[in-house]
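explain this:
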Amino acid sequence: MVTPAARREAVAHLRTSLGVSERRACGIIGADRTSIRYRSRRGDDTALRMRLRELAQQRRRFGYRRLHILLLREGVTINRKKTQRLYTEEGLTVRKRKSRRRAVGARAPLPAVARPNERWSLDFVHDQLVGGRRFRVLNVMDDVTRECLAAVVDTSISGVRWRANSPGLSWCMASRERSSATTAPS
């Protein structure tokens, strides 16, 4: 019985079922008599509630703050906290955006590779030095031999920097073709 309304109901129940006085019922429950006798003087907000619902239907992505601004523009003088209270009492919430469509159908598995140099993978690894400076390593791996073909280390690796500072993947490809040509059986 946390809310005052629940305490009022409990006092009324004790008075009707046991026939005790209000003072005794309040003493049993531990409620203050003034809170039991309280009657709300709040005005009727049905028109305001209806307008708030209409605005929320029109603007589904607007929360109570933006709806409050729309009400002010219409000439309704209302406190923001009252708008928030009515918004929650009416059970209004901001509608979630629909998730983007996923690809339809089953994904095809990657084809199996049997020979070296058929497929390579790129992997970024990052770490931090003792002084707090971060660095990144771009590893180029052969999927069959699990060999690291190249490792580019820098504090910031972008596509433009990768192409400008190093010969890039073409250098890896050329060196791998040379090594496979020398080790190929004759």
Summary: Confidence is low (pLDDT under 50) at residues 182-186. Helices lie at 4-18, 22-29, 33-37, 46-58, 64-73, 80-89, 159-165, 169-183. The beta strands are 120-128, 134-142, 148-154.
